[in-house]
Amino acid sequence: MIPFSVLDLALITRGSTPADAFRNTLDFTRLAETLGFHRYWLAEHHSMPGIASAATAVLIGQVAAATQHIRVGAGGVMLPNHSPLVVAEQFGTLETLFPGRIDLGLGRAPGADQRTARALRRDPLAPDRFPEDVLELLHYFEPADENDTHLVRAIPGAGLRVPVWLLGSSLFSAILAARLGLPYAFASHFAPEQMEEAITLYRARFEPSERCAKPHVMLTVNVIAADTDAEARRLETSLQQYFIALRRGRPVAFPPPVDPGPGLWSAQEKAMLAHTLSCTFAGTTATIAPDLCTFISRYRPDELMVAVPVFDHAQRRHSLELVAQLAGLVTG
Q1: CA 55 to chain centre
Q2: I want to staple 198 with a disulfide (CB 3.0 to 4.6 A). Which of 63, 162, 174, 287 is the partner?
Q3: Pairing between β-strand 217-225 and β-strand 102-107 as defined by DSSP bridges
Q4: Longest Cα pair distance anywhere in the chain, in angstroms?
């Protein structure tokens, strides 16, 4: 059986507020823990009307405080936006407060458009320094040399060895994760194009390390489970509308579902959605289970992370309960 985990963007739905999103996230993570999910990760995005998880480390602390044992982490922190020392201090603080429960996933993308990236004081060359910044960050988690009075230390952070993952949607981070001997998570839920090549490269080139003795792959998928296939297809239209708005350069609060039918999307939009959201599983558990079994058998992830992009919170809770049932069906 492989572990199932949850990815949350603290969705701000149309007509709601960030405060509503945070209340929903805390409720959702408690449910995820009760249902037996392994991890609960939050992702850094900026200037996005539908996403409230910009201050990712702050929200992770609240989620960890609201739960007892589920692992909580970043999926991920966009390292080019930050000083490696500050990230080490933030996650060292979280690990000190919640020992053995904190994960740090690192991404290379800005998590924002170019104007927002400039507002973040982001150096345009920072992505080119990503490998060096990852190494610097890893160093801050190593035990400090007490004899070196000139050493910069992460306090708290030094000696804590917070689990660090590399995240990606292309080959770059897969190769880097293999070289550094780190676990790797692929964003197949919105960028599946290079998934198979990336995880093949990662496994083939993996160099064992003290942090990770063998390749460890986590794949992320969207799962929208409902009591009927028709209801699941309707719920899925929220995610489809959201991605179409993103591709048009006009991000929106997460929209309510609409009735699917002919003429809802143009041919070009249908093609984009079919490609971008090809790792989306919508339907009843009976409908989803065979397709998800095939996906797991083909790509052999060590873990599966599930995003549940459903507009109504009560329906999202029900969908997660069905996903928990599904986890037993497809991995038992």
Answers
A1: 15
A2: 174
A3: unpaired
A4: 71
CA distance 153 to 62: 25
Pairing of strands 71-78, 184-186: unpaired
Residue 214 has pLDDT above 90, yes or no: yes
32 token code pair: 């995820």
Note the pTM of the prediction, 2 decimals.
0.95
- Which residue in this structure is represented by tokens 């400090």? 144
| CB 254 within 8 Å of CB 242 | yes
Which amino acid is present at 327? A
C-alpha to C-alpha distance for 9 and 51, rounded to whole angstroms: 6
* Beta strands per DSSP E along 13-152: 39-42, 71-78, 102-107
The dihedral sign for the CA sequence 102, 107, 113, 116: positive
Which CA distances in Å does 110 have to 1, 60, 267? Answer: 34, 19, 30
Residue pair 308/267 in contact (Cβ under 8 Å)? The answer is no
Give the span between the Cα atoms of 217 and 161, in whole angstroms: 20
Q: Are 159 and 144 in contact (CB under 8 A)?
A: yes
160-211: pLDDT as tens digits: 989 999 999 999 999 999 999 999 999 999 999 999 999 999 999 999 999 9
How many CB atoms lie under 10 A from the CB of residue 141?
21
Which string of b and e fits 147-164 if b means at least 16 CB within 10 Å? Answer: eeeeeebbebbbebebbb
pLDDT of res. 124: 74
Q: What pLDDT digit, counting tens, does each position of 1-10 carry?
A: 899 999 999 9
Q: Where exactly are the structural domains of the chain?
A: 1-162, 219-332
Tokens at 110, concatenated: 């800005």
For residues 54 and 48, what is the distance between their CA atoms, to the nearest angstrom?
9
Q: Which CATH class is domain 1-162?
A: alpha beta
Q: Residue 329, exposed/middle/buried by CB under 10 A (0-12, 13-18, 19+)?
A: middle
Closest among 286, 279, 66 to 192, alpha carbons compared: 279
Closest by CA to 123, choosing from 175, 182, 83, is: 83
